Each structure stands twice: as C-alpha cells, then as structure tokens.
Amino acid sequence: MRLRAALAAGLALVAAAPAPSAPPAPAAGVKLWRLDCGRVKNADLDMFADSYALAGKRKDMVISCYLIRHGQDYMLWDAGFGAELAGREEEPVPGVRVSLARTLVDQLGDIGVRPQDVSILGISHMHYDHASQAASFPKAKLLIGAADLAELQSGTRNPLVDAARLDPWLKGGAPSEGVVGDKDVFGDGSVVMLALPGHTNGHHGLLVRLSNKRPVLITGDLYHVSDQIPVHGVARFNMDRVATLSSQQRFDAIVAALKPTVIIEHEPADVARLPAFPEAAD
Questions:
Q1: 22 within a domain of the structure (yes/no)
Q2: Considering the domain boundaries, does residue 101 fall inside one?
Q3: Region 82-97: what's the mean pLDDT?
Q4: H/E element holding 248?
Q5: Where is the signal peptide (predicted)?
Q6: CA dihedral for 215, 220, 224, 229, sign (positive or negative)
Q7: Do the Cβ atoms of 225 and 59 come closer than 8 Å?
C-alpha cells in the first residue's frame, strides 16, 4: 500500500509539473569572434587517450579564445597562453614548439574593443593554456567552475595550473563567481556555460546561439583533438575518467539535438569553421 501511494504521489507530481519550454530564441546582436591564443607544433596525441588508441600520432594544435558580443556587452571565453610569449617560439619539451603571435589585447584593438570593455571573462577550466592572459582584463567578472575556483583558492600545486594568472580575482577583490552546473550567462539562453566535468572537476563548455546561423558549441577541453571522438579518448591527465565519459555522452546528446557547429578549441580544422578574425559569426 505504501508503494502504491508513493507511486500515485509521484505520478501526480509529474502530471502537475509544467511542460518544458522550447529553447529561447537568440537575442538580437549576438556575435562571435575567434581569437588566436597560441599554437603548438608537433603535439604528441598519446596523452589524449589513456587507452593507447592515439599512440604514435602527432598533430599541430591551436590555442583558441573567443569574444562574444551580446547587445552592448562583451564576454571573453578563455585566455590562452601568457602575453610574455607574444612574438616568440619556445620548445618546452624536445620536438614540441609553442608560440603566440599576438596578445589578446592587441587583437581586440583591431575591432575597437578595450580591456575595460570586457565585462565578463569565462574560463572553461583552470589550466594555464586557457587562463594565462586573464589578468589583462581585471575589471571583468570571472566565471569559472566552482570546483576549479575552490582549487585555485586552495593554492593547488597542479603543474598545469598557474594560479597567479588569476590574481585580480583570487587576491585583488575583482568580482568572480564559482559556477555550479550550467549557467545562462545573460539570462536569455543565448550564451550558456555547460557543465562538462572530468577534465577538471569544474570544467565547462560553451553554447552560443547566434542570431542568423546555427548554434556554436565550444568543447573546452572535453576533447582536445578530433581524433579522440571515435575512440572516446580520455586524456591521461584528466581528473575523473568516469565523469569525462559521462560528459562526452551528454555532449554527444546535445550535438544530436541542436545540430550545432562544434568547435574543439585545440583542433585547427574546427576553429577554421568560424570566420577568420576580424570577421565575426552572427
């Protein structure tokens, strides 16, 4: 009898719940620019699949960042290699070279956007290749996964993290928000941080619904290269393998539902699907 009553109560709740609404229409004036935040030559892909499925493969990779204009507001997504690398090339490990042609500030100047014009800085996760020019935008509100923010605040010694790059928010009192789950950045469904944990515990991707084109879905580092997708590659340095596979499953379901333009942030062919800077997708 108790089970029957519980089932009846549950069905009543389901019946009373409001029907899910359709995704909101994109806000007028949403534009997306791709930005060059660095390059990696001859990267070893074995690190991106703990199953050994990519052993022996190498590829040139990019470090990409993105500027979104929503009405009169500007949001920067990820902040790439450090500005000190601009105009130089280094060889951090034998046979692999990294470089940065121009800083974010320099590139944004081409379209008349100043650092103080950027009101939101979204960081997909705490690794240095996604956060190292963040301090160039100290007036922006930082949005980053709550778990990553907590680790940054704890003084983590993770070799992939350089917390000092985020000092304006960790020590200087600049506004920040630790994002739990998904976040509708502007409240109209046009720009949504998607919780895709596993690479780091607070890792997010980004969904951008443009005004005139299909949505754009940016992976963060859920995938690093397209070679991972058919083999369900989980990077050897991911923090949670099970969470990564679950996030990949969610990501694939979103792709099936929305049929977006998918951009793997380190995959040159994917980044090239967007107009070359200074042109924008809208």
A1: no
A2: yes
A3: 97
A4: helix 241-258
A5: 1-27
A6: negative
A7: yes
Number of structural domains the chain divides into: 1
What is the maximal distance between C-alpha atoms in the chain?
A: 74
CATH number at residue 107: 3.60.15.10
Residue 17, pLDDT score: 36
Sign of CA dihedral 94, 95, 96, 102: positive
Domain, as residue range, for 150: 30-272
Evaluate whether residue 12 is within a structural domain: no
Strand stretches in the chain, DSSP E? 31-44, 58-70, 73-77, 88-93, 96-100, 118-122, 141-145, 176-179, 183-184, 191-195, 204-208, 216-218, 261-263
Instruction: Give the tens place of pLDDT for each residue, 170-187.
Output: 999 999 999 999 999 999
Q: Residue 99's pLDDT is what?
A: 98
Q: What is the pTM of this model?
A: 0.90
Q: Are 166 and 152 in contact (CB under 8 A)?
A: yes
Of 83, 92, 44, 43, nearest in space to 65 by CA: 83
Tell me the per-residue pLDDT of 23-52, one tens digit each, with 9 for 90 and over.
555 545 899 999 999 999 999 999 999 999
The whole-number pLDDT of residue 10 equals 36
Structural domain includes residue 199? yes
